Write the structure tokens for this entry.
Amino acid sequence: MRLSVLLAVVSLTGTPAFAQTGATPVDGDWIGKGSFQMGGDILACTEVKMKFVGTPAVFGVRDASFACESFNQAFPMNDDFEVRPNDDIYYKGAKIGVVTGTRLTVLVPGKDEVGTEFTLRREGDFLYYNEVSRAPGQPPVFGMVAIMHKDPNAGAVQH
């Protein structure tokens, strides 16, 4: 009897813990194409790879690599951001972003007032990625856009 009353109360109150999705829409290994901007140069990137951890409580950036016209670069990372109730994103105790449905937006503060804004939006099988780094009121230091899908080779053993 007590269990049925508890279940009825939970279903009537709409407990947020069951509704919260956090960063789950961006979880996984992603691969696609994009463009990179630095100063006045815009480069086509034939391959963009990114790995994110997305759970109801954590948004993590693990790795990224870019193969663009004049450079190939890998960025090993292990950055975690806390996703709190209401899908607010925190880093070192400060709120820096939010998850709204399948869209995740953060603004990470940096040196000399240069902040980096990341927007990730999941649309079906695609992940749209946008990154801009700039000081307030200044032109971007750099920018990156990519359209990716889940990497079918992620986790595959290489021989």
Notes: Residues 31 and 70 are 19 Å apart (CA to CA). Confidence is low (pLDDT under 50) at residues 1-19.
